[in-house]
Amino acid sequence: MLNLGHALELALIAFAMGSLSLFGWKLGGKIEDSPETYQEHFAEKRPLLFAVLVNLFHGEERATRMLGRLLSKGMPVAAMGAYTLCVVLVALMVMNLAGLGDSVGPVVEFLARFERGLAGN
């Protein structure tokens, strides 16, 4: 049986993650367009992360630009995944409320096993 409260919590978390990913996508585009603007900010606020990026990408401007590229290319994928999870959970909740519990049962069982596996239980 689908626990509606748990499914709703997960759907809201997935929606929030998708929204934050869209903000990261916008930020990544801005960083990629003008890395020199954000270089000083990263060096002051996140010195360890910035030092790792500089060593990885051989230069401050290139490191900042690559961080922007990573955000602008990776965050849309994360947003799509989060929004897809949200839609699937909402669809399962609607199906369960509509009386299609027999159809929802195998999917819920799979998701429960998957969640237990991630938790290490």
Topology:
Elements: H1 4-33, H2 35-45, H3 47-57, H4 60-97, H5 101-119
Task: Characterize the structure shown.
This protein has helices at 4-33, 35-45, 47-57, 60-97, 101-119. The chain is mostly helical and 121 residues long. The protein is elongated and about 60 Å long. The protein starts with a helix and ends with a helix.
Instruction: Please trace the helix and strand order, writing H or E for each element.
Output: HHHHH
- Overall, the morphology is elongated
Report the strand count: 0
The low-confidence parts are none
* Average of per-residue pLDDT values: 86
Strand content: under 5%
Estimated radius of gyration: 20 Å
Helix content: over 70%
Return the structural class. mainly alpha
What is the end-to-end distance?
Answer: 20 Å
Number of DSSP helical runs: 5
Brief sketch in words of this structure:
With 121 residues, this protein is mostly helical. It has helices at residues 4-33, 35-45, 47-57, 60-97, 101-119.
Question: What attributes characterize this protein structure?
Answer:
single chain; 121 residues; mainly alpha; 5 helices
